[in-house]
Amino acid sequence: MEVGDVLRKKTSARVVTVRMNETVGVAAQLMRTSNISALVVKDVVRTEGNTAVGMFTERDVVRAIASQGAAGVNLKVSQLISVQRLVACSSTDTLEHVRHLMNVHRIRHMPVIDNFALSGVISMRDVSAAFDEIAAEPAQTAA
């Protein structure tokens, strides 16, 4: 099974993004109103358009508050993400490959980028559910 198969089955195709220069407070509000735990961070560059540069998660919010107290909500998203190494996949990657990348990099959300454009986000929960579905298929056909 490929990443694209999982993305087509997801109920929400909308990818919620946040800009690097937004605050932790704005990012946390976006996550709360969208009922999600991770945002794709975009850098708006005039010559390249919108570019995905990282992921911002609930853990980043906790890190900001733990290190700065209430003032942590005023930190910029760019201060908490590592933009040097965006770990991403494409919709043609296998779930086995994505699971391996997530385990190696210790991440739970990964942007899906096809032809330099953001196609979606896949989570460890999505991958796990897909593997559960695959494992259940032989049992269903045998019944």
Q: Characteristics of this structure?
A:
5 strands; two-stranded antiparallel ribbon; 5 helices; alpha+beta; 143 residues; three-stranded mixed sheet
Describe the structure.
The structure is a single chain. With 143 residues, this protein is α+β, with helices and mostly antiparallel strands. Helix content is 41%, strand content 23%. It has five helices and five strands, in the order αβαββααββα. The protein has helices at 3-9, 24-34, 58-68, 95-105, 124-142, and strands spanning 17-19, 38-45, 49-57, 109-114, 117-123. A three-stranded mixed beta sheet has the order 1-2-3. A two-stranded antiparallel sheet has the order 4-5. A hairpin with a 3-residue loop joins β2 and β3. It is globular. The model has no long low-confidence stretch (mean pLDDT 88).
Would you summarize the structure shown here?
The chain has 143 residues and is α+β, with helices and mostly antiparallel strands. The protein is 41% helix and 23% strand.
Topology record:
Blueprint: H1 3-9, E1 17-19, H2 24-34, E2 38-45, E3 49-57, H3 58-68, H4 95-105, E4 109-114, E5 117-123, H5 124-142
Helix pairs in contact: 2-3, 4-5
Tell me roughly what share of residues is in helical segments.
40-55%
SS-based structural class?
alpha+beta
Distance between the termini: 23 Å
Biggest sheet statistics: 3 strands, mixed
**Spatial extent as radius of gyration:** 17 Å
Major sheet strand order: 1-2-3
Secondary-structure element sequence?
A: HEHEEHHEEH
Multimerization status: single chain
The gross shape turns out to be: globular
